[in-house]
Amino acid sequence: MSLKRSAASAARWTAASSVVVALCQFLQISILAHLLTPADFGLTAIVMVALGFAQAYADMGISSAIIYRQDTSAEQLSSLYWLNVCSGFFASIAMIAVAFFRAARGREPERRGLISYAAIIFVIIPWGQQFQT
Length: 133
What we know:
Layout: H1 3-35, H2 38-59, H3 62-68, H4 74-104, H5 109-118, H6 121-124, H7 126-132
């Protein structure tokens, strides 16, 4: 297969993937909007924004560095793996601390529980993130 055909095929698959992801997200939001009250839907949106920021910091560009430098040794990959696990753990701790701080100031205490439960994701995701990369 020529390079031109390969690039065109990759572009079609990427476009199809983007469309499917957008449709799934629209379906997810539609279902949540139907099932949740406006206040609960707003809390869910706040939690998702907090998770988005924390996830951007949890990876710290490690996945991009692994892709960029494909000649890394097994020792370097191991060090990056444990750095990623530790950064995920600290991102989780930071999210829980911020949630408790905000709840202590009297601003929507129900958010504390939601963010604390969602912060567990950052303890779990790094264990497989490097293998996914």
